[in-house]
Amino acid sequence: MWGRLWPLLLSFLAATAVPGPSLRRPSRELDATPRMTIPYEELSGIRHFKGKAQNYSTLLLEEASARLLVGARGALYSLSANDIGDGAHKEIHWEASPEMRSKCHQKGKNNQTECFNHVRFLQRLNSTHLYACGTHAFQPLCAAIDAEAFTLPTSFEEGKEKCPYDPARGFTGLIIDGGLYTATRYEFRSTPDIRRSRHPHSLRTEETPMHWLNDAEFVFSVLVRESKASAVGDDDKVYYFFTERATEEGSGSFPQSRSSHRVARVARVCKGDLGGKKILQKKWTSFLKARLICHIPLYETLRGVCSLDADTSSRTHFYAVFTLSTQWKTLEASAICRYDLAEMQAVFAGPYMEYQDGSRRWGRYEGGVPEPRPGSCITDSLRNQGYNSSQDLPSLVLDFVKLHPLMARPVVPTRGRPLLLKRNVRYTHLTGTPVTTPAGPTYDLLFLGTADGWIHKAVVLGSGMHIIEETQVFREAQSVENLVISLLQHSLYVGAPSGVIQLPLSSCLRYRSCYDCILARDPYCGWDTGTQACVTATTAANRSQGSRTALIQDIERGNQGCENSRDTGRALQVHMASMSPPSAWPCVLDGPETRQDLCQPPKPCVHSQAHMEECLSAGLQCPHPHLLLVHSCFIPASGLGVPSELPHPIWSSSPAPAPCGDLFGKSLGTGQPREVRLHHSPPLPSCAALVNQPPHSPWSFSRVLRDRPPGMSHPCARVV
């Protein structure tokens, strides 16, 4: 029932959302099904690390020394980035003492999960030391660790101003030029705060006469080098992404839910901020925040953010993952949105919101704005006016900043819509990297972790997102808590409760034919016409060979380039002897066709040798020698209720060899318990998803079997 009601519910939710950009494409067209599924048993080229600790959630990659540093519960590890499972790791035991754990338990905390030292922060402090902070049984501690010796110091620093006390609280932190920039709720009775410590000018957010942050849960932070090549002498900025309770106008359509409604935000501060001289002393003078909208603002929760090209502000952009859920908790989906830095900069330029005491809500500010513009960084223009630092700013400007931290306009996604809407999947973390293909274009490649231990690898295209593959990286379902990419090691590192996994960024050899390689649309993979193999298409490798276009790729369409290749996929023979079907059959489009083309009505093949040969010569091929008739057309999903890939009926005549001998079904770990993925060994490019649909569905097996041709059986009905 929910599958049928989901499109209607989305329409209702969109109608109740706050004003924002309208979607130019229906929600169902933004869904995507992974082209390939790799279950845990079929993983290859992976490496594991698991020590005696638990919760390997904090990862720090140091490319120069080829080390992966890991913070876990009660321990830190230094692993080889080349092979995390080589056994040559270094380890620091950093447990809370029995006395500390006992005190924690006496305060009502859980002595099985909470009363430990969870390492939440791990960054490079300087050329010789790392800096780590842990919850330490709700009494946070920090330590400067000798990076070479990898040992704890003899003395520790108080961590209450730098690290959350609770291992479950949202937290983000950076070390910038020796200063510690953190954001969390630092103590039980304190309000969430963005702070700078270990710096000559320690700063924090304002609390009176109003809190700048309202029960915030922080997700991500990043330094953007906006001073680099700036024509106006701009300052670098730190951007924070978080959720908080909303009280502005239009933040909720249901009055009863206003007190609990949470929204996504992005805030920013200037790195050169020194605070005010009299007003806003030791407080940020550049703090501004804005609403972040993806798809259905009333029902979306920010889960993760990653930044790309943060060192070059003109190209800086962000990807954010949201979970979409209703107040009934019966339906859930995930959305991916992209945001450009330029759009954020425009929003932070004004207008502002103002807290209205009468309604006790935020409304648009319509009055005058003092100069210099409140919340702006110190630029060359301001220096020429005598404002050399934030302590030189007029009191009128600082008073305005104090009362107007919220911007009136929201930050909307690029092109005004999500890149992806995925039903029944809860993404928990994401990371990405730009990949330059041999032909020149650059594509953003994203890795998305799920709450049940899968990784979705996706490429961002002009039309949206294409999920290249989904990989089950843990045998037991568990949440992916961190993802880090190493370009030098060509690896993805996955942090989770049970350990760390190292995966290759690409596995091009999985693709056995030219069309299989091209249909994958993996920017790391291309078909080598010389070796007749799908190989890693790194720009450096192709340049060194002196041929940037030797490999065949078609990332945008996934259907061109293999026409003249010697290996276009085997045209498998069709056994005609024992067939007794009706007079016309659909042929599978398995070759130089795109997914969009596959969704067109199949060309009928009249049951005769001549017509069958005509179909084969037209590029319509059967993907299995024993399946007489197969049509694995990729059907557009009907809303978010039906996965994007559904098979047409698959038939076999009884005298033919058993076609399911090489076929096997595996349940997907994507929150859809009734969905089974049909596999073939060795893998075939035409494998499609097989879904148990309700009896009324046109794709249900009961209906398929009822409508089967005389004398034919469904060879894979027993798979499910």
What's this, in brief?
The protein is mainly β and about 725 residues long.
Side by side, the strands of the main sheet go 1-27-26-25-24
What is the molecular shape?
globular
| Quantity of strands, as a count | 40
Cα separation of the termini: 21 Å
Fill in the CATH topology of the largest domain. Answer: Methylamine Dehydrogenase, Chain H
Strand content range: 25-35%
Count of all domains = 4
- Average pLDDT confidence is 77
SS class: mainly beta
Share of helical residues = 10-25%
CATH class of the largest domain: Mainly Beta
Main sheet specs: 5 strands, mixed
* CATH level 4 superfamily of the largest domain: YVTN repeat-like/Quinoprotein amine dehydrogenase
How do the strands and helices of this protein lay out in sequence?
Layout: H1 2-16, E1 36-38, E2 47-49, E3 54-62, E4 67-73, E5 75-80, E6 90-93, H2 98-106, E7 119-124, E8 129-134, E9 141-146, E10 157-158, E11 172-176, E12 179-184, E13 193-197, E14 217-224, E15 237-245, E16 262-270, E17 288-292, E18 300-308, E19 317-325, E20 332-340, H3 341-348, E21 353-356, E22 361-364, H4 380-384, H5 395-403, E23 420-423, E24 427-436, E25 442-450, E26 454-461, E27 464-472, E28 482-486, E29 491-496, E30 499-504, H6 514-520, E31 525-528, E32 533-536, H7 539-544, E33 551-552, E34 584-586, H8 595-598, E35 604-606, H9 609-617, E36 652-653, E37 663-667, E38 675-680, E39 689-691, H10 701-706, E40 712-713
Parallel strand pairs: 1-27
Antiparallel strand pairs: 2-30, 3-4, 4-5, 5-6, 7-8, 8-9, 9-10, 11-12, 12-13, 14-15, 15-16, 16-17, 18-19, 19-20, 20-23, 21-22, 24-25, 25-26, 26-27, 28-29, 29-30, 31-32, 31-33, 34-35, 36-40, 37-38, 38-39
